Amino acid sequence: MAGPPVTAAPSRGVGGARRRVNGVFYGWWIVAAGAGIQLLGGALLGQAFGAYVVLLREEFGWSKTVLSAASSLREAESGVMGPVQGWLLNRFGPRLVCQAGLVIFAGGFFIFSQVHGLLLFFAAFFVMSIGASLCGYLTITFTAVQWFERRRATAISLTTAGFAVGGIAVRLTVQSMESFGWRETAVLSGIILLVVGLPLAQIIRWQPADMGLGLDGDPVPAADAAGHRSPVESLSEPGTRDFTLREAVHTRAFWFVGLGHASALFIVSAMNVHLISHLKESLGYSLSFASTITLVLPLLFLVGTILGGPIGDRFSKRYLVVCCMFMHAGGLLLLAYAANVGMVLAFTVLHGLAWGLRGPQMAAIRADYFGRASFATILGVSNLIIIVGTISGPLIAGFMYDQTGNYRIGFDILAGLAAAGSIFFILATKPPRPLL
Fold first, then answer.
1. Any residues with CB less than 8 A from the CB of 410 and at least 6 apart, and which?
2. How far apart are the C-alpha atoms of 179 and 196, rounded to whole Å?
3. Coil, strand or helix: which one is 148?
4. Cβ contact 161:302 at 8 Å
5. Distance of alpha carbon 436 from its chain centroid, rounded?
6. Mean pLDDT by 10 residues, the chain (436 residues)
7. Residue among 132, 137, 165 nearest 295 (CA)
């Protein structure tokens, strides 16, 4: 529970804290721990929910609409919870928030294992969603932003890679459901979160200055050594400081980045819900082929995520994201009008890589633009914009299918929204930092 052992490296900074652990900057240990926690969330619930839907429908006969409502509840909760979570992170720090989230997440699984009716199902899922949010993306990304500046996109991409690996590891969760039952798997998932997740959360630290370290492992600035957290003077732009939430929301960039992010998630969320149905029912492919595509997508997402960090640190994050938006749109159009396997595979490559390349840039751009001091609340409030895409994407595709008998028009609309999202990112230029 105490984290990795510290080597006998020369001590520096506040209280003689050491700069490296086993020869590695401590920030990278935090990145590894964050990736592990995101892996657990993705494998146990985030990308395993579809399997639970099948088994719950078989046991209780609940409609797809009712079960899909739970997914919408999760997305809505994440958006509404964002500003509150941002405040909690700034008030109590990421380690405590993450630990509380893991305990709540596990408790939700234990409640879920006892479900026999809809009321308890939604109550359990609500508890799990709160726990998953508190120990998930926002908390882990907030921590990475506090520890890195030059390597920020790389650090965020590596934590996100944990979620991608979780998409691959979800096969183990499904096998557990088939071998032991979904209730037993839910109990086991709760135990894993406590036994594995809590020790990983113990590794997390709020800021490098708390350990006498600087961003990216550099020498600690004097102001940080004194324990000053906000406002934070910009290291890259001396004489300026980080944005407050109030200042950020009055910039054009805050809204354009949020709207662009939402535009991308129209497609991502729709594919998570409707891809298998389109491949099987609209295009006539086997369930085995459709399942293979859904396995390849997280692999490509993982490749894109790992590549996206170094690329984003070296080149313009904004223009990289613009390219990704056109990849999302072009890939979806290929899928909508697919006449052969080659077009389906082209969609898989474009969408999977764009998803992975773009993901880390979303948080990194906000941190570059607005700084670290209010990052948690800025990203949390941005979630209120982002959820428009995550909730509406599946609904648009599903509604157009019900009206027309196929997904083509719905996918055309979503591709248009993604292409329009590229314009938001083109316009989202970096705002000037407030002066000290």
1. 270, 396, 397, 398, 399, 400, 401, 404
2. 22
3. coil
4. yes
5. 33
6. 43 43 82 94 81 78 71 71 86 94 96 91 89 90 89 87 83 86 93 96 88 77 49 64 92 94 90 81 81 83 87 88 95 94 95 91 90 85 86 84 86 92 93 86
7. 165
> Six-digit token pair at 302?
């993982």
User: Of 138, 349, 334, 366, which is closest to residue 251 (Cα–Cα)?
Assistant: 366
The pair phi, psi for residue 233, each rounded to 5°, is -75, 135
The DSSP bridge partners found for residue 435 are: 240
* 84 within 8 A of 134, measured Cβ to Cβ: no
Give the Cβ contact number of residue 25 at 10 Å: 20
Rounded distance between C-alpha atoms, residue 138 and residue 148, angstroms:
15
| Structure-block tokens of residue 399 | 């509604």
Cα Dmax for the chain: 68
21 forms beta bridges with: 24
Compute the chain's Rg from CA coordinates: 22
Q: Is 338 left (phi over 0), alpha (psi -120 to 50) or beta?
A: beta
- What ranges in 25-63 are assigned the alpha helix state H? 26-41, 49-60
**Structure tokens of 147?**
């520890």
CA pair distance 350, 303, nearest whole angstrom: 12
Amino acid (1-letter code) at residue 138: L
**Would you state the structure tokens that stand for residue 281, as one six-digit string?**
């029912």
d(C-alpha 413, C-alpha 407), whole Å: 10
Which residues, listed in sequence order, are joined to residue 233 by a DSSP beta bridge? 241
pTM of the model: 0.76
CA–CA distance, 253 with 207 (Å, rounded to integer)? 26
Q: Which CB contacts under 8 angstroms, 24+ apart, belong to 343-352?
A: 344/279, 344/283, 344/285, 344/293, 348/293, 348/296, 348/297, 348/300, 349/300, 351/267, 351/271, 351/297, 351/300, 351/327, 352/296, 352/297, 352/298, 352/299, 352/300, 352/301, 352/303, 352/304
Residue 402 φ then ψ, to 5°:
-65, -35
217: left (phi over 0), alpha (psi -120 to 50) or beta: left
Number of residues that this document lists for the chain: 436
Q: Please give the structure tokens belonging to residue 263.
A: 């535009």
